User: Fold this.
Amino acid sequence: MGPNTTASLDSTTAYSGNFSLRIFNENAADDGSGGDHTLGYWLSPYELQGRKLSLTGWVKSEKSGGTVQISLGAYGEMGLLSQAQSADIQGINDWKQIKLELQVDSSTHSYFLIVGANGGGKAWFDDFRLTVNGEEKHSLEVATDFTPEQRAWLQKNSSAMARVEPTLLVEKADYSDLEEFRRSVGDAEIIALGEATHGTSEFFLLKHRLLQFAVQELGVRVFAIEANQLEVEKINRFVTDGVGTAEGVIRVMFKVWNTAEMLALIQWMRAYNLAHPGDKVEFVGFDLQDPSLPMDSLSQFFADWEPSQRPLVDSLQHTYRAAWQAQYYPQAPDEVRANWKKNADEVLAICNQNKDKWLRKAASKTEQNRVKWALQNARLVSQAARYCLFANRECQGYFYG
Assistant:
């Protein structure tokens, strides 16, 4: 969404039913220069590939210079395969019907319906209908249905759970329905709990309950999540030592984890640690997407521990750090990314060369941990730069929804 733009349901202007979708850019000068404002909706390709698609929808506009657009596109491993796109709608128009047709026979992994506008003013979208080979669809299957044999196998090889909601620490927990989970875990030292979608309430309620079970019944003492490792240390300091607030530290994670369910999980971990000060549970991250904080931390570490080499480290990190300050997931040619990686590896080499000296100098466990974090931060920056380089090479032309 461009600056000063909102997308919302509008109950005062609708073609049919009670609402339309409104995209409103409040720029006074509606000359089309206000940027693009788009919303994309993903459609599973399972029922669509190789079939004739017809999409109709209604659009209303109040624009004097900007335009309104609708597109339906199919994407494969090398990017956009084919796209049906409406002509640009300009000016002030009452409800106008748009019709798009598309058929793609080659292998697809995604279809996207994209509605958008640019410039200032308002645009409304309503009453979209999709037909597949002449049959109107209100939902799309993502795979073949289960066969009777598969259903019988699932029933035989699965165990129902009584609830997904976690238990308050002061309540007596009933885990009798999780015995199959206990058996599945066995003597594993790492238990992986994924989710089919980020943010679905029930997945995280159940994850919270399974964490409670794993802590209280299986001896688990570390909860790890897909979030930047050094940032998540702020959450760990809260759950182990009460530094900060749950509402404050949760914000260091990606927005998909900023939910009421995750907040409750963090608060439960803090309450458990208060009740068990000698046997605490930790909260850690295992991602490396954003290396900004590790780079800043390394710079400060060298200022304190190896000041003569700080200018060199800062100069080696400067271009990569500046790129992240300018843009999240910075874009650059391969040769620039390769230089980011080369410089990050040089900083890592400097840290490894000094490691033994730093550890001998460390007079306390706190200082030893600081040295270990410096080494880990250097590894994180190197790994992030490597990912940035090779992801760019491998994923050019891909569409990410």
